[in-house]
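FAQ: What does a multi-protein file look like?

Like this. Sequence, then tokens, then the next protein.
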Amino acid sequence: DDDDDIPQLSSHTLAALQEFYLEQQQREGMKTSQGFNQYSIGSIEEDWQLSQFWYSDETALCLAKEAVMAAGEGGRIACVSAPSVYQKLKELDGKDFSVCILEYDRRFSVYGEEFIFYDYNQPLNLPENLLPHSFDIVIADPPYLSEECLQKTAETIKYLTKGKILLCTGAVMEEQAAKHLGVKICKFIPKHSRNLANEFRCYVNYASGLD
């Protein structure tokens, strides 16, 4: 029998696999059903292997509103490794600002021309049409709590911004954040949809509404 060499799944494994596919189909069905917002936080699930932890809805909204205020009318906002702030900005549906997302995870390419592939290991490997100092504010959340990651992300931030910087990273990075970006810690404490082991803070280099 030609089928003898084909590995067979046990009935238990097969049932588990079918259950997984059913759940996946249900999730996709919910996403495509009427009223689904492609920009809602969680519409693209966290990938912990990429050190992804989405902000809570309240935090994302607070940071998005701060960015709009800081950018001013007709302002341009860049979200560097901060997709949940980008999503919240799109939910605000403002006509008086524009926004783009620089992100390593190509799942966010569903957002079309506003998505720019970004690898912090190559901080200045950016599209030619992304002109230096062309954003009124840059919001960044480096994926790793290391000075190397912060320093490289800082190169990108300084290239993009006209001046204003809103950095979200661990409290342990306070000295390095001041050293590489000249930012100071804010009173506002960002929260994530899942609690993180490390204390998280916001840092800015301008008079913000986060104090």
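And here is the next protein:
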Amino acid sequence: KLFFTDYGNVAKVERCDMDGMNRTWIVDSNIEQPTALALDLVNKYVYWVDIYLDNLEVVDYQGRRRHTVMRGRQVRHLCGIAVFENYLYAVNSDNFSILRINRYNGSDVQPLANLKNAKEIRVYQKRTQTAARGHACEADASGAPGGCSHLCLLGSSYKARTCRCRTAFVLGSDGRTCK
């Protein structure tokens, strides 16, 4: 799945398959300008920052069990968040500090470092990396991803895929070759 925020005409947090199909709103009320977004892959939670409402919130992948982790002026400057164990890690765009925040109740906010012009933060840890298994976009005998001449996008499961073309190309009738 792909998770993303949108604050166009109707602000929301959404999810869809990697090929863009099955687009679903998971949060669309009491939300104004959702920006930074992070996933708890283990427990299947989505965290986001709403810079207009000054809220840091969380919801499960189906849009249930929503609650506010933290609210207030200091949330307004959070521009990048990541989840690891019991904490959220965030970039404060006001002073470029990296913060550690208790992800359950927003307490225990600790500045860890200052990084000039930092905008995003990512945590890489072996436990959060899922084991690779065969999937529909694996390279075929000729090296084409999923048999697609340009792009292969996973669908609703790891066994389903959709071929897409780069700009100025059109997908052929075989559903795999771009012309």
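Q: Is there any per-entry metadata?
A: Some entries carry free-text notes. For the entry above: The chain is about 0% helix and 40% strand.
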